[in-house]
Amino acid sequence: MSQKKVKTITIYGKGGIGKSTTTSNISAALADSGLKVLQLGCDPKSDSTTTLRGGGYIPTILDTLREGLAEHAFTVTSSDFMSVYASNNLFKGIQKYSNTGGALLGGVIANSMNSTYHQAIVDDFVEHTKTKVVEYVPRSVTVTQSELQGKTTIEAFPDSAQATVYRQLASTIFNHNESKVPAPLSENDLRAWAMKWADTLLAIESGEVRSSGASI
Ligand SMILES: Nc1ncnc2c1ncn2[C@@H]1O[C@H](COP(=O)(O)OP(=O)(O)OP(=O)(O)O)[C@@H](O)[C@H]1O
Ligand SMILES: [Mg+2]
Predict the structure, then answer these.
(1) What structural domains and CATH numbers belong to the chain?
(2) Is the CB of 143 under 6 A from ligand 1?
(3) 111, 121 Cβ separation under 8 angstroms
(4) What pLDDT, in 10s, does the model give residues 91-112?
């Protein structure tokens, strides 16, 4: 029997941004396609696998598992500045440890996208940091309904548009091999970048700029 190499990936992102939800759906989609998946959470709330286990809780493994777990790192971000800020900090960490066997960056999972301006902000951030978006995941009530049932969207609503997005994301991650060192923005550059978007959004809101992202 041929021995297949285990692929190890890690998912980061600001608190509450959608890491557990997105990751559980990726795991469910990969398991659905016949793969064996082990999802480990480093989450003090120990809820990252909740929807995979019908809503129950298990003890955290935060204290027993530490570093060196993954080769490919992905970050979940929305277009909110604090979320972009957390991703930029992750990029700094990846850059710092890139020479000593740390995980490299696979890409950015853009979560809670429900306006073209959300997408434009994340697109601009990845361009500035020499990274890429691996999937745009819409904010969807289907996710809320799945969570209320204690399930992933893949299980609760397998035929939904949202499940299709998670399956596509799972497939992209499964086939992904080339992770890179990102180019994080300095504190000053990130601040300047944010101010530019503050001005742009203000201009869109006041009608000064007409764009497809005008529906803030
Ligand atoms: N695309 C989405 N559409 C609708 N709701 C979403 C989406 N992504 C996440 N959510 C909801 O946002 C809330 C927070 O998500 P989640 O628990 O996955 O975040 P997290 O990053 O794991 O948080 P923490 O840092 O606290 O572990 C959940 O109630 C989840 O259902
Ligand atoms: Mg979580």
Answers:
(1) 9-184 (3.40.50.300)
(2) yes
(3) no
(4) 998 898 888 877 899 999 999 9
Task: Report the share of the chain in percent with pLDDT over 90.
Answer: 66
Question: How long a stretch of residues is the chain?
Answer: 216
State the distance from the centre of ligand 2 to the C-alpha of 16, rounded, in angstroms. 7
Q: Tell me the C-alpha to C-alpha distance, in Å, between residue 34 and each of 28, 122, 156, 158.
A: 10, 32, 18, 15
pTM of the model: 0.84
Per-residue pLDDT tens over the stretch 32-57: 999 999 998 876 667 788 889 887 66
For residue range 184-206, what is the model confidence (pLDDT) as tens digits?
A: 999 999 999 999 999 998 888 88
**Residue whose CA is closest, atom 3 of ligand 1?**
139
User: Is ligand 1 within 6 A of the CB of residue 14?
Assistant: no
Angstrom distances, CA of residue 114 to CA of 25, 79, 80, 132, 174? 19, 10, 12, 19, 26
